[in-house]
Design goal:
Number of helices: 5
Largest sheet: 5 strands, antiparallel
Radius of gyration: 36 Å
Helix content: 25-40%
Distance between the termini: 27 Å
Shape: elongated
Structural class: alpha+beta
Number of domains: 3
Strand order of the largest sheet: 2-3-4-6-7
Number of strands: 12
């Protein structure tokens, strides 16, 4: 397990300096409401604090804002995921402006105080990255999904916003809408002035940054028939209303098949009873073997019912289970793992 970086140290030299100057902070505050002296770099009450902070390698045309001696930065420049030669800004692309808000540079890979560092989408603690031209999936190391990476040919170098931290929360007191596509006016262009090519761009919820496959044994009868099949981690989300309708219709199909089978069993039982009691009379009156006529009639009637149930089942598959189905149970635009 990786060693954790403490937020504060009880025996920090700055706290020791503070303890020596004020015997008891709590006693002092009881007497005066506030301590009479705080070391300038103690960090207490939101003050300045001496901490190990690296320096950012500023590119020629960048403007950098930094909060005091803290590890908090806002950088204005061009698209740059790493060094000044990276991204769209490195080779001098136009219309690739960026705003990069970062706290905790190299937090997970500590460097000596004053070390010169570049952007690190892996080691920096938290970031909000806005760029006019970018490849976010590549920069953040995001797995390919149903839509492919953001640097695919149809959206190569378009605008993007990336947010990364140990924990990210999105809260809406009156609700949250996660929307893709153009506005309701239908005349919106992309950031390059081109047409938005996808009418319904996908939404992908990828847990664990994994969109591959995993093996699963599939048992077949008669045993020991077993084959391995590959299951996708990333799959379409089920459409609730369509799934409900699919189950209701399938339930109706099962009912029809059950009714046909029960009718066949009841009629077969009546036939057996009749034949057993009146076999000779049936033979004399009909002129045909007693079982043949009744059996043929029952078979034809129930065969028709079963064929109808089979046809309904085939149509059910076309309505619900095929990608072209108007009530396809899988979402065509929302995917999840």
């Amino acid at each position: 397990m990786a060693k954790k970086t403490p937020i504060w140290e009880p025996k920090d030299k700055y706290l020791t300096e503070f303890e020596n100057s004020i015997p008891s902070l709590s006693e002092e505050m009881k007497l005066q409401g506030a301590p009479h002296e705080i070391p300038a770099t103690s960090g207490i009450f939101g003050g300045e604090a001496n901490e190990s902070v690296v320096n950012y390698k500023k590119a020629l045309a960048e403007s950098v804002l930094r909060y005091g001696n803290r590890n908090a930065w806002i950088t204005f420049g061009t698209d740059r995921p790493a060094g000044d030669a990276s991204g769209y800004g490195g080779p001098g692309a136009r219309n690739a402006s960026r705003i990069d808000i970062v706290v905790g540079r190299m937090a997970s890979n500590p460097q000596p105080t004053g070390a010169q560092v570049d952007n690190s989408f892996i080691a920096d603690a938290a970031r909000i990255y806005l760029s006019q031209a970018t490849n976010l999936d590549e920069y953040f190391g995001i797995a390919d999904g149903a839509a492919g990476q953001v640097n695919s040919s149809d959206i190569d170098g378009h605008s993007g916003i990336g947010i990364k931290a140990d924990a990210v929360r999105v809260i809406g007191r009156e609700g949250i809408k996660l929307v893709t596509g153009f506005s309701t006016s239908h005349d919106e262009k992309n950031s390059r002035g081109g047409n938005i090519t996808r009418a319904n761009p996908p939404i992908e919820l990828i847990s664990g940054n994994n969109t591959g496959t995993f093996p699963m044994p599939h048992f077949e009868l008669p045993f020991p028939g077993v084959r391995m099949e590959q299951i996708n981690y990333l799959q379409p989300v089920a459409m609730g209303e369509n799934v409900r309708e699919a189950f209701l219709e399938l339930s109706g199909i099962i009912d029809k098949m059950w009714n046909a089978l029960m009718s066949s069993m009841i009629q077969q039982n009546l036939m057996n009873t009749t034949i057993g009691a009146n076999a000779a009379a049936i033979g004399r009156l009909s002129g045909i073997p007693p079982m043949a006529g009744i059996t043929t009639m029952i078979y034809a009637r129930n065969q028709s019912r079963m064929y109808k149930a089979k046809a309904t089942k085939v149509l059910w598959e076309q309505y619900f289970l095929k990608p072209w189905a108007y009530r396809y149970v899988c979402s065509r635009n929302v995917f999840a793992t």
